[in-house]
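Methods, example record. To illustrate the input and output format used throughout this study, we show the complete record for Copper chaperone PCu(A)C. The sequence lines were provided to the predictor; the line carrying structure tokens was produced by it.
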Amino acid sequence: MSLRTRRASVLPALGLTLALLATGCSGDSTATTASAGKPAAPASSAAPAAAITITDPWIKAADQGMTAAFGTLVNTTDEPLTIVGASSDVSAMELHEMTMKDGAMIMRPKEGGFVLPAKGTHELSPGGDHLMFMDLTSPVRAGDEVAFTLTLADGSTVPFTAVAKPYSGAEESYAPDGGMDMHE
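The corresponding predicted structure is encoded as:
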């Protein structure tokens, strides 16, 4: 085989290889994923906008320490949804509930999260279930709008904004045994 014949047979193969590599490296992951017989991954982990809404969201104004967010969570779907977490730029957050312990009302993390029945609601209120801001990084003043994100059991997230309001009830403090007491 002459050198000229080898070049003639190698060049088309090289061109085909480069074309295949360019297709595989393109930014269109849907095409390569679909051609592999696998469904494409969703573009976002955010829950559908209408799955959960919150009516009358508000957060207790506070200069430092802890505070809480309240409102009524509304599940607009035909399936129960469970909120398992919350986050915000102003503080670490936990889902909390109020319960009786040794004759006293105490606040504690809500095991299993907040379950919203299909087409149902779940109230977050002072003295009840609430979204706890654990250690504010800056003051939350009356009128401030505070953004936070709820995380559902399926990993999807739902962003909300709550307006800060002055509120003198439900003064929170940590109890010496690591629990939390509520003082009205």
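Annotations derived from this record:
Residues 3-24 form the longest helix (22 residues).
The CA atoms of residues 53 and 74 lie 5 Å apart.
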